[in-house]
Design a protein that fits this description.
The chain is an alpha/beta fold and 191 residues long. The protein has one domain: Rossmann fold (3-Layer(aba) Sandwich), CATH 3.40.50.300. 43% of the residues lie in helices and 21% in strands. It is built from seven helices and nine strands; from the N terminus they run βαβββαββαβαβααβα. Strands 2-7-1-8-9 form a five-stranded parallel sheet, sandwiched between helices. β5 and β6 form a beta hairpin.
Length: 191
């Protein structure tokens, strides 16, 4: 089995950008594509960014125990498909999970996944607000909701193996690369 990397952060701190950078730079890394009930943003593609499904379909997948983890975030469901992750493992890929703290707690119950859990923080709340506004994906009401959620999100940093402050995207990305490489070296030396 490959390495399983969890990247979590408050919304807007950079986890999705870093997740994409990892999968673009390393051919052996695959992103676990979540199922969600939220509507696609204009630039998102079904099956590439998310699997967009109805609430009914999502609830059916929960009943069938098809998810490693699932959570309701900002009135929408998100979940990690067991089958997708298992297929990646069969092909010897490392898997990166772009999930929140709720999903990480559930995923951590599966000890066989041997997770590297990394929590990404913005330098401060003001910078987070600037980033949320700059990315121009949400209206001001949603930005306010995300900022309120920030206080709750950061309470869960101690559930993670590593905390990385995203002052600068390249520096943050380099730190995460080092964490993954060191973990892989350690894993090889134990084998």
């Amino acid at each position: 089995m490959g390495v399983n990397i969890v990247l979590s952060s408050p919304s807007g701190a950079g986890k999705t950008t870093i997740t994409k950078k990892l999968s673009q730079k390393y051919s052996n890394i695959r992103v676990s594509i979540s199922h969600t009930t939220r509507k696609p943003r204009p630039n998102e593609i079904d099956g590439l960014d998310y699997f967009f499904v109805s609430k009914y379909k999502f609830e059916d997948l929960i009943k069938k125990k098809n998810f490693y983890e699932h959570a309701k975030i900002f009135d929408n469901y998100y979940g990690t498909s067991k089958k997708l992750v298992e297929d990646f493992h069969k092909k010897k890929f490392d898997v990166v999970f772009d999930i929140d703290w709720q999903g990480t707690k559930q995923l951590s119950k599966y000890k066989e996944l041997n997770l590297i859990k990394i929590f990404i923080l913005p330098p401060d709340k003001l910078e987070l607000k600037k980033r949320l506004i700059k990315r121009n994906q949400d209206n001001s009401e949603v930005v306010d909701k995300r900022l309120k959620q920030y206080e709750n999100d950061i309470k869960h940093w101690n559930d993670y193996d590593y905390i990385v402050i995203n002052n600068d995207l390249e520096s943050c990305f380099n730190q995460i690369e080092k964490i993954i490489k060191n973990h892989k070296k350690k894993k090889l030396s134990l084998a």
